[in-house]
Specification:
The chain is α+β, with helices and mostly antiparallel strands and 404 residues long. It folds into two domains: 156 residues, no CATH class; 168 residues, no CATH class. It is 57% helix and 18% strand. It has eleven helices and ten strands. Strands 5-6-2-1-8-9 form a six-stranded mixed β-sheet. Strand 1 and strand 2 form a beta hairpin.
């Protein structure tokens, strides 16, 4: 009777393993056939608004891949827009931007007064479309808003518009991401008085101390809004950075003590915060062609270590080294943005805090589950199964990032 029960229990566990592997294999297939396989890639635009007393100038920059997605303009399917292809879709992409990026003054939508230029620039590894247009001027005490609805209905794209605003001697930033992608500002009388007559005199500065202090007061609410927008951007960035999340999971599922868990999390946090800061400040510049494959490789390496080693020691050292690479990946989205020096520290800190908050919540949720799993008699099989999936996904991303 006892042998029969043991045999029955063993059969149940074998079936459970089969179902688990089938589920995980299906998970791999789904990921390998969707855009989310491009785990860390973001569709990002960079918008600059320049306010003067005579006009409002907008410069809108977006990556070439997004232009191809929005226009289906890559006719020869070589992954880039040739001069003839760009010329063919130029009017189409202008219309797409005009329909989705809206500037309002006192709630009234504004139309372009003129288009100064639209170009496709290739600089090193990056190719970007740049559109420069002119809107009517914003007057004193008027409210101005910018709304970006690009990719609004596409749930597979993690789109963000990184906005920089110039008015007089002042500059502010905002990150438009998620469902609510609207920036707004009330142009106060003092801020309007500090505007230049046109962009040619933008370099002139005011020496009126009282006016400068009024402008600082005006900017306080915008600084809070900017802080929150970069905080949300950090949250969205880590939640949709499936490669970072998978790396974190692979680190944690190995059998280890709570002290080792704490060492791993601390090492990863310090390492990625260090290279994130250095990269955004411009003191560290490593090509994404190295960083992105290296992130995928880190997943494969840790997964293999989980599979072939029952006990892992000093994992915090390995975590720190790979964390340096992941930090450079986090920085990619901010490196192209011309963040004002006065706001750089708070924007960078809020972005990083957003990442850390999500990471901490995930760890708090996972640790009790992982602790229970370690006490399960079949925990070793579960670690191997999860690590196998992590290795396969990491391998897919590694191959894609090397070949593209």
């Amino acid at each position: 009777m006892y042998r029969l029960k043991a045999k029955s229990k063993s059969l149940i566990f074998r079936r459970l393993y089969v179902y688990l592997y089938c589920l995980l294999f299906g998970f791999v297939l789904i990921f390998s056939n969707t855009q989310t396989v491009q785990a860390h890639a973001y569709s990002a635009s960079y918008t600059t608004l320049n306010f003067t007393k005579s006009q409002t100038e907008m410069t809108y920059v977006i990556d070439e891949l997004s232009v191809i997605e929005l226009t289906d303009g890559d006719v020869n399917h070589n992954g880039m827009l040739d001069p003839e292809e760009f010329k063919a879709v130029q009017n189409q992409i202008e219309s797409v931007i005009k329909e989705n990026v809206t500037l309002k003054i006192n709630g009234e939508p504004q139309t372009w007064l003129r288009t100064n230029y639209i170009t496709l620039n290739r600089q090193g590894e990056a190719t970007q479309l740049t559109l420069n247009v002119v809107y009517p001027a914003v007057l004193a005490s008027q409210a101005v808003t910018l709304t970006d609805r690009l990719y609004e209905t596409d749930t597979k794209t993690n789109y963000v518009n990184l906005l920089t605003i110039h008015y007089g001697t002042q500059k502010s930033t905002s990150a438009l991401s998620g469902k609510n992608r609207t920036w707004s500002m009330m142009l106060s009388d003092s801020a309007y008085a500090g505007l230049q007559d046109d962009l040619k005199t933008q370099g002139n500065t005011s020496t009126d101390t009282d006016k400068q202090s009024q402008d600082v007061t005006t900017n306080s609410s915008e600084m809070i809004s900017g802080w929150l927008s970069f905080f949300k951007l950090g949250i969205n960035h880590i939640l949709t950075g499936y490669d970072h999340l998978l790396f974190l999971l692979a680190l944690l599922i190995a059998r280890q003590s709570f002290k080792k868990f704490a060492q791993v999390i601390t090492a990863f946090t310090i390492a990625h915060s260090l290279t994130l800061t250095l990269s955004v400040l411009g003191w560290l510049d490593v090509s994404p062609q190295f960083v992105e494959p290296a992130i995928a490789f880190s997943i494969c390496y840790v997964a293999l270590e989980n599979i072939f080693r029952k006990n892992v020691n000093n994992r915090w050292i390995l975590t720190f080294l790979f964390g340096l690479i992941h930090g450079m990946g986090f920085a990619d989205i901010l490196k192209e943005m011309n963040i004002p020096t006065s706001e750089l520290a708070i924007d960078l800190a809020s972005f990083n805090i957003g990442i850390e908050v999500v990471q901490l919540v995930i760890v708090i949720i996972c640790l009790p589950l992982l602790a229970r799993m370690q006490n399960w008699s079949h925990s070793r099989g579960a670690v191997i199964a999860i690590s196998s999936v992590a290795f396969i996904l990491g391998g897919i991303w590694l191959a894609e990032r090397i070949l593209t």
